[in-house]
Design a protein that fits this description.
Helix content is about 30%, strand content about 30%. With about 400 residues, the chain is of the alpha/beta class. The protein has two domains: about 280 residues, FAD/NAD(P)-binding domain (3-Layer(bba) Sandwich); about 90 residues, 2-Layer Sandwich (Alpha-Beta Plaits), CATH 3.30.70. Strand 10 and strand 11 form a beta hairpin. Helix 1 runs parallel beside helix 5. The protein binds flavin-adenine dinucleotide. Flavin-adenine dinucleotide (FAD) binds next to helix 1, strand 3 and strand 17.
Length: about 400
């Protein structure tokens, strides 16, 4: 212990993972000593994070109720074979909302601190060193510096470009449109994603699961605006834009089983879903475990709780990576959509467990049995090289 206030938790990177750890820890133990160090002038970047209600661990529900900015009881998907309503709750949160919540929570906590414009240049189990040379000791350091620090792996990519629009007239969407794959298939599996934030406010994204990580914002913006116009959604104003290239690896491990810190969390530590590119479910589970050990975070890495969780994550990650391998190396780009059309015929409980990355052995069997998707090549999947 370094302080009479109790053990120190130092969180490197003020992004999604550490925001959730800070909020969960302070909810469990309001007097905890929690310091978030963020390189940028503001925490939480520029994203809209979405998740299924069924991703949320029970223990974290009260925290996520404050985090969720928009919630919907169900959503739609649309494929060439037809639409489907999926009766699973869905939610989203903007960076702005999460940053405000994090900033307020840390400011109100007696031993909370958020230090922005603060770059960490060295980390070890006992603390961190800042760019100016200052040393901060810690009982547990969580290193969640984001996707840029993730190890390389053989991978496809989820690329997306989105615009949040204020419209001239109501869009008429009552629920999210999670995947509309009835659009032209270019560069891989391509779909439109739309979240209605208000009667005349909408986020619309063009997404592609591709074997190339290239994303040239100009043409994507044109494409998104054309899709909006085609649906009768005429923009009065572009409120925000966001883009991303998320790894969908088919090799490499999931999170490491660590025996000593710094604990590598978030994208950096492999706490993400290889087959969706999303990290919210994983970040929530890690935050739950850290918060459960808020009295003694320095002992976390030796606990059965942590070991059980990380082993489960690795097992789930292995299967999800295998699915990516089949998708990117076994199915030609222009027929990849058939895999998702088939997936959305599964029961809702399986869809929920797929997104949460908590599939059962029976789920896995259900996903693999039956006629292979159109254009599937076992030889190509076994060779493991991506097909265009
Ligand atoms: C545009 C976009 C949309 C996404 N949408 C979703 C979604 O809907 N649902 C979902 O589950 N996932 C989504 N993801 C994927 C994933 O959840 C995010 O990438 C998520 O932000 C990862 O969380 P993280 O905490 O690991 O990293 P980040 O949120 O990227 O946070 C890392 C932070 O560390 C800081 N940092 C880096 N180096 C240092 C340093 N040396 N010192 C101090 N600070 C440092 C960075 O500035 C950054 O703020 C999205 C990703 C992107 C890019």
């Amino acid at each position: 212990m370094h302080d009479t206030t109790g053990p120190a938790l130092v969180l490197v990177g003020g992004g999604l993972q550490n925001a959730l750890i800070a909020l969960a820890t302070l909810a469990a133990r309001p007097h905890a000593q929690v310091t978030v160090l963020e390189r940028d002038p503001r925490p939480c970047g520029n994203h809209t994070w979405s998740f299924h209600a069924t991703d949320v661990p029970d223990a974290l529900r009260p925290v996520i109720e404050r985090v969720a900015e928009h919630t919907w009881p169900d959503y739609d998907v649309q494929f060439p074979d037809g639409p489907r309503r999926v009766e699973l709750g869905y939610a989203s949160v903007s960076s702005e909302h999460l940053a405000d919540l994090l900033t307020r929570t840390l400011a109100d906590a007696p031993h909370g601190a958020l230090r922005t414009d603060t770059e960490v240049v060295a980390l070890d189990a006992g603390g961190v060193t800042l760019a100016g040379g200052e040393r901060l000791p810690a009982d547990l350091v969580v290193d969640a510096r984001g996707p840029g620090h993730a190890p390389p792996a053989a991978r496809g990519d989820q690329k997306f470009y989105g615009l949040e629009l204020a419209l001239d007239a109501p869009h008429g969407l009552e629920r999210p449109l999670l995947m509309d794959a009835t659009i032209e298939q270019v560069d891989g599996f391509r779909f439109i994603y739309a979240l209605p934030f208000g009667p005349q406010r909408l986020l619309i994204e063009d997404t592609v699961f591709s074997t190339s990580a290239e994303l040239d914002a100009g043409p994507w913006r044109t494409r998104v605006l054309a899709e909006a116009e085609a649906r009768g959604w005429s923009p009065a104003q572009v409120l925000r834009e966001e883009q991303g290239v998320l790894p969908m690896p088919w090799s490499g491990p999931g999170p490491a089983i660590q025996t000593e810190g710094p604990l590598r969390g978030g994208y950096h530590g492999g706490w993400f879903h290889p087959a969706t590119g999303y990290s919210m479910p994983h970040a929530m589970r890690l935050a739950t475990i850290v918060a459960r050990h808020a009295e003694d975070p320095g002992a976390l890495l030796g606990t059965d709780d942590y070991l059980r969780l990380v082993r489960r994550e690795r097992k789930q990650a292995r299967f999800a990576r295998f699915l990516n391998r089949l998708l990117f190396t076994g199915v030609a780009a222009d027929t990849r959509w058939t895999v998702f059309q088939r997936f959305y015929r599964q029961p809702e409980s399986l869809i929920a467990r797929f997104y949460a990355c908590t599939l059962t052995p029976l789920d896995r069997a259900r996903m693999l049995v039956g006629r292979p998707p159109r254009g599937f090549s076992l030889r190509s999947a076994l060779s493991g090289s991506a097909i265009q």
